[in-house]
Amino acid sequence: MVNIADASLKSFASKGVEHNAEPPSEGPVLMLTGPQLQEIILQANQEAIKPLEKRLDDALGRIRDLEFQQDRDFDEMASKINEHSEAINRVWKAVKIRPPPEPGKKTEQRLKMLDSILLGCSGPVSFSEMGKKLELGSRDSRSGKSTRRQAMTKLGELLDEMPDRYIINKAKRGNAKFISLVPAYAKHLRMKREV
User: Fold this and answer.
1) Best CA proximity match to 162, nearest among 83, 122, 123, 107
2) Which of 42, 77, 148, 173: CA 20 to 30 A from 92?
3) How many angstroms separate the Cα of 52 from the Cα of each of 43, 49, 55, 60, 113?
4) β-bridge mates for residue 169, sequence order
5) Which pLDDT tens digit goes with each residue over 61-106?
């Protein structure tokens, strides 16, 4: 048994590649130590990195210049805004805008009706639909035209002055407007109903 194993090892070894101890004679052979090879590689890398370092320094310089320019532009813009804000404040004080008028009894009734309608709806309601539900406007006896649109425009202006109660959105397409309750105001109305 030992003879078979020894014979197969010898036959396997005989099929292997023979290594020549001599290098091929294609040209001169250089013999370098590890530290010498490391030094050559290090010098080659440093020479390759020098142009990249210069480009990086140039880019950083341009970035600093742009940041400085941006700061200067921002300061100029801030001073211009301050100049305009002072002028706006002077005009504002001179005009003395009066507060919006308090809604009358009929408008108060319509607002209460609007609140109850919106509270019962699951989403925003179009102004057109709301005008129908509130029965706004009438037919002009001479021309036969409806005045609902005009009445809803006036109501819309009033609702714009109440951003704590109503959210008014414009449709993405067309001129339609939609109205809904501010969530906090809707919660207030629900609690008021429960009491």
Assistant:
1) 107
2) 77
3) 15, 5, 5, 12, 74
4) 178
5) 999 999 999 989 888 888 777 777 777 777 767 665 666 667 788 8
**Among candidates 148, 145, 113, which has minimal Cα distance to 128?**
148
Do the beta carbons of residue 177 and residue 169 sit within 8 Å? yes
The DSSP bridge partners found for residue 168 are 179
Which segments within the chain are labelled E, that is strand?
125-126, 166-170, 177-181
Report how far residue 183's alpha carbon sits from residue 126's, in angstroms, rounded to the nearest whole number: 18
Half-sphere exposure of 168 (CA within 13 A, CB side): 17
Residue 174 is given by DSSP the state S
Which two tokens mark 68? Answer: 């400085």
Q: What is the pLDDT at residue 97?
A: 60
Looking at residue 189, its pLDDT comes to: 85
Look at the alpha carbons of 39, 41, 44, 45 in this order and tell me if their dihedral is positive or negative: negative
Tokens of 49: 């990195």
Return d(Cα 119, Cα 183) in angstroms, integer. 10
* Mean pLDDT, contiguous 10-residue spans, the chain (195 residues): 50 50 64 86 87 90 92 85 75 65 79 87 82 74 72 81 85 82 87 78
